[in-house]
Design goal:
Layout: H1 2-38, E1 53-60, E2 76-82, H2 90-95, E3 99-101, E4 118-124, E5 132-133, E6 135-141, E7 153-158, E8 171-172, E9 178-180, E10 183-185
Parallel strand pairs: 1-9, 1-10
Antiparallel strand pairs: 1-4, 2-3, 2-6, 5-8, 6-7
Length: 195
């Protein structure tokens, strides 16, 4: 009788071990099943918001020969879009999200191409863009010592909805779309300076 009890204990122990293995495997499958069904479509990343932008071509009247002869007076050229006009403060507007610029880096050497006949640009707006850009301009840094102030920048072209390239016009913004806004820069006939 002692041997039968010993064998029964081993049988019971083996059965218990087997049931634990089966339960562990079932629990693992159940956990994977629950994770997959609870994540709508598996481990899909969140949707990427659509890109809202303004882009176009900047044409330089007179081509590359019309640019200022002193190359040391032209440091960078950017497109800047302001939510309101007149701009309150160039750097304050940028830091507080009331103005957007190209290229996105703030380094002096990040610029649109210089001494070109024309160039393309793309101004990427935030995920929650404004309904319109009140003032879209091409600005040139002329004094690196005044990079962070409006006195270091000169507006050399504006987006216009009329034939008068000195008269600015607003740009409607459409969420998730790219709006075209071409501009002309005439170094001999610049627009009025807003700041």
């Amino acid at each position: 009788m002692h041997k039968q009890g010993f064998i029964r204990d081993w049988s019971t122990l083996g059965l218990r071990l087997h049931l634990r293995k089966v339960a562990s495997v079932c629990a693992a499958y159940l956990l994977v099943f629950l994770c997959c069904t609870r994540c709508d479509e598996g481990l899909k990343p969140p949707p990427v918001p659509p890109i809202t932008s303004i882009s176009g071509t900047i044409r330089y009247a007179g081509g590359k020969n019309a640019w200022p002869q002193r190359r040391d007076s032209v440091w960078t050229v950017r497109v800047i879009g302001f939510r309101q006009f007149p701009p309150m403060d160039l750097i304050g507007d940028i830091l507080q999200g009331r103005a957007y610029f190209t290229p996105q880096a703030l380094a002096i050497d990040s610029t649109l191409p210089l001494y070109a006949d024309s160039t393309s640009y793309s101004l990427i707006l935030p995920d929650e863009p404004p309904q319109r850009i009140e003032y879209l301009c091409v600005a040139m840094l002329v004094d690196t010592a005044k990079l962070l102030s409006t006195q270091g920048w000169r507006v050399i072209g504006v987006h216009s909805t009329t034939a008068n390239i000195r008269q600015f016009g607003t740009v409607p913004v459409i969420y998730g779309r790219d709006v075209r806004a071409d501009m002309t820069v005439d170094f001999k006939n610049p627009p009025p300076q807003p700041f």
